[in-house]
Amino acid sequence: MKIRNLSEELKKNAYPGRGIVVGRSADGSKAVTAYFIMGRSENSRNRVFVADGEGIRTQAYDESKMEDPSLIIYAPVRVLKHHTIVTNGDQTDTIYEKMSRDESFEESLRSREFEPDAPNYTPRISAVMNVKNGSYDYMMSILKSNNGDPSECLRFTYSYSAPKAGEGHFIHTYMGDGNPLPSFEGEPEPVELDGDIDTFTQNVWESLNADNKVSLFVRYIDIATGEYETRIVNKHN
Predict the structure, then answer these.
(1) Which of 47, 159, 229, 237 reaches 20 to 30 Å from 60, CA-CA?
(2) What is the pLDDT of residues 165-196, one digit of tens each?
(3) Worst-scoring range by mean pLDDT, 66-70, 71-75, 127-131, 161-165?
(4) Pairwise CA distance, residues 9 & 161, whole Å
(5) What CATH fold (topology level) applies to the domain 6-232?
(6) Contact 160, 171 (CB under 8 A)
(7) Domain extents for the chain?
(8) CA distance readout (Å), 202 to 5, 69, 74, 150, 232
(9) Neighbour tally for 35: CB within 10 Å
(10) What residues form DSSP beta bridges with 76?
């Protein structure tokens, strides 16, 4: 599969919804992840990312305007020992709790399905990055309805055991705008990863649709030491 330019992929899709990027920095020294959220409704757009321990959580920007917190208030990022978990919903907590009891990433998601937001049935997308003793690998998952049919949940897990420098994978919830919203199709998209954390953060944020983007999280983890840097960008500052 051809490796794509992440900025170009984002620019040509006005509404990818929520997206996860995971990969390895161009110099090979950092494990890289990004998570962004977008919104069409006032309720979805009324959010910010805030730090929460070693991870982040979503929070209402204006509490007086919050209509329905279900599906939009959650912890997208949590850290369990050498595992960094990134998801688009409260399955972050499911993965964290079950992996803490020695279940695998794939096993931990068997109790979950796509979101109950008919008629969209938004996919649940998840990733786990494993950085330990100078080694690095990651996995990604998508749980989705069967072409809009909620009677069946399709489960796909992708494993990347030897991430290459300057390369990553991008998975998102929607193929574009619509009603209902069309779910992501195919495998996580291979993308180029360029620049340091600030350059990468700027490129991703500026490539997201200006009207629909809400918040962005980026983390670079030093593979040798496990130390990390984080950037959070919110449309509502």
Answers:
(1) 229
(2) 999 999 999 999 999 999 999 999 999 999 99
(3) 66-70
(4) 24
(5) Glutamine Phosphoribosylpyrophosphate, subunit 1, domain 1 (3.60.20)
(6) no
(7) 6-232
(8) 15, 29, 24, 37, 11
(9) 23
(10) none
